[in-house]
Specification:
With about 70 residues, the protein is an all-alpha fold. The protein is built from three helices and no strands. The chain has helices at about 15, 25-40, 50-60.
Length: about 70
């Protein structure tokens, strides 16, 4: 059984990055949260100098909330 990861890296839910075989609407809610964060702050919640560092921040849910939120 093989899982293909597709989508923009900044929006991927942790369970997709971990290539778990069972994920559903929760992954879509995660991506919606990323979109809402981006709309509210004009920045992405997760960033990294490489794909690996971006994935690490997503897996750890390392988000810096701006003071105005």
């Amino acid at each position: 059984y093989m899982i293909t990861v597709c989508g923009s890296a900044h929006y991927l839910a942790p369970e997709i990055l971990l290539r778990q075989s069972h994920f559903g609407p929760e992954a879509d809610v995660w991506a919606l949260g990323v979109v809402l964060y981006a709309l509210a702050t004009r920045t992405m919640p997760f960033y990294g100098v490489s794909r690996q560092s971006l994935n690490r921040r997503i897996l750890r849910a390392e988000v810096q909330l701006p003071p105005h939120l």
